[in-house]
Amino acid sequence: MPPKSYYHEGGETFLQSLFTHFSYFAFDKAKEQADRERDVSKNQCSPVWTTLLSCVSQLAIVEKLYMNLLFLTPKGFLRKESSVRLSYETILTELVEIEKRRGTTSNTSHASNAPSNVTVESEKTEKGCSEGVLLHLSSHLILFIQARLLMLSFYEKLILWSSNKYVNYDDALQYIDEIIKKNSSSFHHPILAPIKTTFTCESEINSHLLGSLKAMQELQFLPALLHLHDAQSKLLSWQTIIQNKESKKYNFLKSPSLPALYQWLWRAKASFVSKFSLYFYEVLSGQASASETKNLLTKLTCDYVSKIQSFQRKIDAQSVCIVLKASPHCNMRSPGYNFPSDEHAQINLDHYLTIFSYPVKPLSVWPCILMQLSNMTTEELYDKVISHYDVKVGITLFFCQIEPNIFLVVTFENKKPEKENFVKEFLLDIAVQLSCNKVFAALKPN
After folding, report:
1. What is the pTM of this model?
2. Are 355 and 229 in a shared domain?
3. 92 is a domain residue
4. Which residues, other chains included, contact 298 with Cβ-Cβ below 8 Å and sequence gap of 6+?
5. What is the pLDDT of residue 112?
6. Where is this region: Disordered (predicted)?
7. I need a labelling partner for 382 at 20 to 30 A (CA). Which of 90, 144, 146, 309 fits?
8. Could you say which of 256, 274, 292 is where a domain stops?
């Protein structure tokens, strides 16, 4: 006796199990089960069922490539006809052809007056998987693939933006938030609930990560903290889905079984937390003892504070500080949360704030620092370190730009230090790391 197809009984449950495999990256298993069911169903089930299974099988392959970021490989590595985007578009075309049957099926149903046909179709709906359900599901899968194509474009743009001087967080945030808004109520069919959940996690994690960077650039402590917290919560929710389906516990940043995109999101969050710890060190260090703070910082992906402290001692600098050039309507007076006040509502364009300084803020040479910063342009500072020796004051200043409005400054008493090249290399390295361009560039597979 030949195997019985799920089409006749338990079809919807079977389809949902396939998409559940998608949610925890078991794409090979989903493809294997879809192919097996398609072969069993040949010549005994609706052609819509077998065609849909074929689409799901193809989708499993393409989703695996997507999650491993292979759509970002350099041109020429993959042949054009086998690209990830083209594969999605091919599946989309097949689903559109299935979806067109809805109108045909509807017209045929209205034309038929045989009550026996209605009875047979009703029984199939109760026990198996009706053609109407399959056609409706196809229309939702179309929306999912359209959303996935938008995410492909989003990551491609992130790579492009990372090659610029600085990533424009406003543009990136607007792009991902539009995707979230457009698809908030799309492909909500219960059978697609597993991939709807993971798509929402992925897109919202990206939004929160970018939101945290924008808030840090504007020195907004609470918004940056909340965005990082929400990104962490979404990542943990996604992790729970995977752990619930797998018996073994993963090392989530090192396991080779986890796809590249998922691992990149965790690494990006860790990098941004490290940046947050430096920008708001003054606030965070006030919440715990010096030893507790130091212990917590050593657990981060990059302990910028220790790096800068070690650098300062090694070259015997007077101070190392990070300075923010505030916007015209900024009402901040220090890093961290500032209570709104009309008295401080307007600050002129040339107002600067010290984000971080070690060992102390160079108050004696602060006017000289501000004068030099006011006279410098972004083009002058981009990707280079500028030094200035002030004969009157007797100090040497080194400037390096981290972001359009944030600068790294090192001061020395007297003339330039002997290890000038070492100073420049260190400042450029720290600036590149804090700009986070390399984090986004790391999306591209090696």
Report:
1. 0.88
2. no
3. yes
4. 306
5. 43
6. 103-122
7. 309
8. 274
